[in-house]
Design a protein that fits this description.
CATH superfamily of the largest domain: Vaccinia Virus protein VP39
CATH topology of the largest domain: Rossmann fold
Oligomer: single chain
Helix content: 25-40%
Shape: globular
Strand content: 15-25%
Bound molecules: flavin-adenine dinucleotide, S-adenosylmethionine
Structural class: alpha/beta
Length: about 800
């Protein structure tokens, strides 16, 4: 990013970023000697970490103001903070929060009660400046929002050209609602109710369902897609689900994509739904709660009714996430809080972004009747009408988009009626795609020789990548883990004691110890932890732990602290592969494909003897390191394939006499160690760049020694006897530069898809690739954002 910006030679460089990105951007600017006339890097600049890291280089970098840095009160606060906490406070929220809490404390003390109304009145009627110090003796600094920027800021020099870069990551802030009059949930943040007092379900029926011409409009359709702004408590969603179930002529499948900046925690959602949902929707509400994802930014695909009802929750600010969706919307439910209270949800820019996703003939409905909303809809091609509003409200708005938006039309143009699909490769990549296509009605031929290449891969781990910079790899692994948990749900067991015979995976969690490079110094380790904690992940996804916590979780002494990831899975890759390929509609063809040829009816695969062995209208190349060669032999142009490499590696089996020393969850860091399955543990894994592709991958004594080195660093206190005769398994990984996979449609080759280069993350990409390719072919909402799709697109440049 900094490279790109530097090339544009701007006078002004502004990034709005959280600490990890602020640090990364500034570091890159420093390394590249990029020194524009004016540089602004809020908000990370306001943290003590920034000054520690950049020392004198921090001078001249602009950031946001907020406090009068050289006032005696601020200096006093900083000194006391250092005394108590051992480091300086940030200049971002620390002082303001402290002052705010002082105001609250004094208002309570003066009101002599905790009664909300009386305390609020006390604050509202207080003299403009509070009398400090407070009775507790603590003197807060004066907060002056109009003050000049703080000490890190310098005067801008003359500036003309401007470059503005926005970082993607924003931690999610969960919602909290209180009961307003007549028990309607009310948001204190937005100052508005979640639904009309006359009833959420009646409102949903009148405004959103009838307002969009439903149920009639979904009749006779295979797929129907609704895009909602503001998922809130999911009451519209549940009302829609009820209407769809109740209609015998409903579409075969219903897809709902709902955008939400402040999702509720599962507990709070459950408590509201208990009160608000009528008895006949209890089952659906419970299913929603059971599938409710961890509160992580990005997309979450939930599947109900054997996949016929799909909900994609898009967690994040609508303005940031709507442009990154891929779907063709047939109906819009516009349900932000009132435009006057929440203008961001109704801005012209957001309505234009929403309209981009319209399918031709898409309709929109909202209870809002503000002129600005109507004008914004009309400006982007909607024909807008008024209708009588709900429960005595004079008007509501309905609209229709006759031509549809560019993105919506593009998604529909890719759609194909399910027919026959040809998948080359039967590893987790091919099997994952075949399973997803079969679930959408495709008859799938999966062609691969009878290969025992992965037979010895006794156990593996699905552990989401974590990264303080929240890189594309981390976002992708997060999405992949969510999709794997959803897709493999029937064969995931909660503990090792469960379903030993049939389970494919066990949700045991991962202790992810800090990687070695973060342990070079206390400062690097602290930075790593601070960076992770700045991401604001919920504890059911990531919790920072010390070595003692790690030992408690693993049931064995662990070398160091790091993070606990409850979503970590222990997986039997062979069983997973078999289970995916057993899906009805999948046919396994045993052959090595030498060449593929395109004809009128699609693609035909020819084996090494030149015999046609399988065929399909669409082709998925999922043969790991062999993918590029097969594409070349078949005259399929795939430039990125030239960069595909095969890297060998091995795992080490830890035999029965060592089982007592093994952990009860996955322990990963530099290498990993897995709990015992069938009396045998696994330590992994090596990267062997010396063995040439085409040779059998060797499991060598040297490789075992390296795995045992990993093991000793992870579990240092266990006594690992020196076995003369270690055993294990060695195999190949297919890798592209940047270690991102290639998943998606191959540009310039209609009906050809690639699913390869899964590197060391085969399990993380398996369900994701299936869901992505299946959504592309069915013209239904994509499970990951467009920028992630581009990052893993097979059409990207090798260096991208
Ligand atoms: C030592 C080691 C440890 C690992 N540990 C983990 C781990 O813990 N967690 C994790 O997520 N990942 C792990 N991986 C990575 C993971 O194994 C891979 O990412 C994954 O196996 C890739 O799956 P794939 O289907 O792309 O490739 P493969 O499993 O190699 O399958 C390729 C398929 O293509 C077929 N094929 C090839 N050429 C042709 C052709 N011409 N015609 C027909 N068929 C063809 C092959 O027969 C095979 O069926 C590990 C890898 C190694 C080597
Ligand atoms: C009226 S409520 C939606 C009620 C919901 N449709 C239901 O059926 O329960 C509005 C929702 O919009 C969300 N919201 C507000 N501003 C947002 C934004 N900028 N981006 C995404 N969601 C936002 C709020 O958090 C809230 O949940």
């Amino acid at each position: 990013m900094v490279n790109e910006v530097r090339k544009a030679a701007p006078d002004v460089f502004i990034t709005f970023s959280y600490p990890p990105d602020t640090i990364a951007v500034t570091e890159q600017a420093r390394l590249q000697s990029f020194n524009p006339k004016l540089m602004y890097t809020g908000v990370g600049t306001a943290f003590a970490l920034f000054k520690q890291r950049f020392a004198d280089n921090a001078d001249g970098v602009l950031s946001l103001g907020g406090v009068t840095a050289d006032s005696a009160a601020v200096q006093d606060y900083i000194a006391r903070h250092r005394e108590v906490v051992g480091q300086e406070p940030d200049r971002w929220a620390s002082l303001v929060t402290y002052a705010g809490l002082q105001v609250l404390q004094q208002a309570i003390e003066q009101a002599g009660t905790l009664d909300r109304a009386q305390v609020s009145a006390r604050i509202a009627t207080a003299p403009p400046s509070w009398s400090f110090p407070s009775p507790s003796g603590r003197r807060p600094p004066r907060v002056d929002h109009a003050a000049r920027p703080d000490a890190l800021c310098a005067r801008p020099r003359e500036a003309r050209r401007c470059a503005i870069v926005c970082a993607m990551f924003e931690p999610l802030v969960p919602a909290h609602a209180i009961a307003a009059d007549s028990a309607v949930p009310f948001s204190p943040v937005y100052g508005d109710v979640y639904h009309a007092a006359a009833g959420a379900f009646a409102q949903a029926e009148h405004v959103f369902i009838a307002g969009n011409g439903l149920p009639e409009r979904w009749r006779g359709r295979a797929d129907f897609t609704v895009l909602e702004t503001g998922f809130g408590l999911g009451l519209n969603f549940l009302a829609l689900w009820r209407a769809w179930r109740a209609d015998p002529a409903r579409s075969e499948r219903l897809h709902v994509v709902s955008v939400e900046a402040h999702p509720f925690t599962r507990d709070e959602l459950a408590s509201w739904l208990r009160d608000l949902v009528p008895g006949e929707l209890r089952v659906q509400a419970d299913a929603l709660l059971a599938a409710w994802p961890p509160l992580l930014p990005g997309l979450h695909s939930l599947s109900f009714e054997q996949g016929r009802m799909r909900l994609t929750l898009a967690f994040g600010k609508a303005a940031a996430i709507v442009p990154r969706l891929s779907l063709a919307a047939d109906a819009y439910f516009l349900d932000g809080f009132a435009p006057a209270r929440n203008p961001e949800m109704w801005s012209d820019a957001l309505i234009a972004a929403l309209a981009e996703h319209a399918a031709p003939g898409a309709t929109a409905a909202t209870w809002a009747s503000a002129g600005q909303v109507r004008r914004a809809l009309a400006a982007v091609g909607f024909a807008v009408r008024k209708r009588p509003g709900f429960a005595g409200k004079r008007d509501m708005t309905v609209a229709e988009h006759p031509v549809g938006g560019a993105c919506g039309r593009r998604v529909l143009a890719q759609r194909r009626t399910p027919g026959r699909a040809l998948v080359v490769g039967a590893g987790v990549a091919g099997a994952g795609v075949a399973h997803a296509l079969a679930a959408r009605g495709w008859a799938v031929d999966v062609v691969a020789p009878d290969d025992a290449a992965h037979a010895g891969h006794a156990a593996a781990a699905l552990t989401p990548t974590i990264d303080p910079g929240d890189s594309v790899r981390a976002r992708l692994a997060r999405a992949g883990a969510g999709l794997a948990h959803g897709t493999w749900r029937p064969v995931i067991a909660p503990t090792l004691a469960d379903a030993g015979e049939t389970a494919v995976a066990w949700r045991l969690g991962t202790v992810q110890v800090a990687p070695r490079r973060q342990l070079r110094s206390d400062e690097a380790y602290a930075r790593w932890r601070e960076g992770l904690s700045a991401l604001g992940f919920p504890a059911d996804w990531l919790r920072l732990i010390d070595a003692a916590d790690a030992a408690e979780l693993a049931g064995q002494p662990v070398g160091r602290g790091g993070a606990w990831l409850p979503a970590g899975l222990l997986v039997r890759p062979g069983r997973l592969q078999r289970w995916l390929l057993e899906a009805p509609g999948v046919r396994r063809v045993r052959a090595r494909v030498a060449r593929l040829a395109a004809g009128d009816a699609g693609w035909t695969a020819y084996d090494e003897a030149g015999r046609a062995c399988a065929g399909g209208e669409v082709l998925v190349l999922a043969c790991a390191g062999g993918t590029a060669d097969l594409a070349r032999a078949s005259d399929i142009a795939w430039p990125l394939g030239d960069a595909l490499q095969a890297v060998a590696g091995q795992i080490t089996y830890l035999p029965e006499d060592l089982v007592a020393g093994l952990p009860r969850c996955v322990v990963a860091g530099d290498g990993y160690v897995l709990p015992a399955l069938d009396g045998r543990g696994v330590a992994g894994s090596t990267y062997d760049h010396a063995t040439q592709p085409g040779m059998p991958a060797p499991a060598s004594a040297e490789g075992h020694a390296r795995n045992l080195e990993h093991l000793r660093a992870l579990l240092p206190q266990a006594a690992w006897p020196a076995h003369a005769d270690w055993r294990g398994w060695a195999g190949w990984r297919a890798v592209l530069p940047g270690r991102l996979p290639a998943i998606g449609a191959l540009p310039g080759a209609a009906g050809v898809f690639v699913a390869t280069a899964y590197a060391s993350r085969g399990l993380s990409h398996c369900a994701l690739a299936g869901a992505l390719i299946a959504s592309h072919l069915s013209g239904t909402p994509a499970p990951i954002e467009a920028d992630l799709q581009a990052a893993i697109g097979p059409g990207r440049a090798a260096g991208a």
